[in-house]
Amino acid sequence: MTDPAALRLREALGNFVTGVTVVTTRHGDELHGLTANSFTSVSLDPPLVLFSLSRTADCFDAFERSDYFAINVLQSDQEALSNRFATKDIDKWSGVRWRPGHLDCPLLDGAIATFECRVTTRHEGGDHIIYVGEVLRFDHGPDGEPLAFFRGRYTAVSA
């Protein structure tokens, strides 16, 4: 991204504090995941959430072929896990502790909340696709502080 206006927009958007998640899916025997802060609740009735995925993400095709995804909300001591799933061209799953969810998507150990979702719609969103999913199962705990992102870096959030 070299367009000065786009760079300024990105800088301005960075002033909004976000939580950090790892979104996962499974396609056949292959596990896929990426770090995302574009996660939000959409509706409680029905229970819907969304995240957006760049068309250039290395796991884009896997998410396009899958009907399910899981959101793993990271806690403050999981910065290394966030960085791992934000890195391209590595084995993201090597040494990562996870368990299969009820929908067979990977759930990361230590996440402070997980949401197992069925894709209900995909929307065009410029250079991203917006995935809306119905929450079919969820869990939360252990107690902990969330991992947050602000102005291009991780930050502490106190309750």
Word description of this protein:
This protein has 159 residues and is of the alpha+beta class. The chain has one domain: Electron Transport, Fmn-binding Protein, Chain A (Pnp Oxidase, Chain A). The protein has helices at 4-13, 60-65, 79-86, and strands at 18-19, 21-27, 30-36, 39-44, 47-54, 68-73, 98-100, 106-108, 113-125, 128-140, 148-150, 153-155. The strands form three sheets. A seven-stranded antiparallel sheet has the order 3-2-6-9-10-5-4. A three-stranded antiparallel sheet has the order 1-11-12, with no helix packed on it. The radius of gyration is 15 Å and the shape is globular. The model has no long low-confidence stretch (mean pLDDT 93).
In short:
With 159 residues, this protein is an alpha+beta fold.
CATH superfamily: Electron Transport, Fmn-binding Protein, Chain A
Overall number of strands: 12
How would you classify the quaternary structure? Answer: single chain
First and last CA, distance? 35 Å
Strand content: over 45%
Number of discrete domains: 1
Helix content: 10-25%
Cross-sheet strand order for the largest sheet: 3-2-6-9-10-5-4
What class do helices, strands and sheet pairing give?
A: alpha+beta
What is the typical, i.e. mean, pLDDT?
A: 93
The biggest sheet, with number of strands, parallel, antiparallel or mixed sense and barrel status, is: 7 strands, antiparallel
What is the element string, with H for helices and E for strands? HEEEEEHEHEEEEEE
Specify the number of helices. 3
Radius of gyration using CA atoms only: 15 Å
User: What low-confidence regions span 5 or more consecutive residues with pLDDT below 50?
Assistant: none
CATH topology: Pnp Oxidase, Chain A
Tell me what the CATH architecture is: Roll
The shape is globular
Name of the CATH class:
Mainly Beta
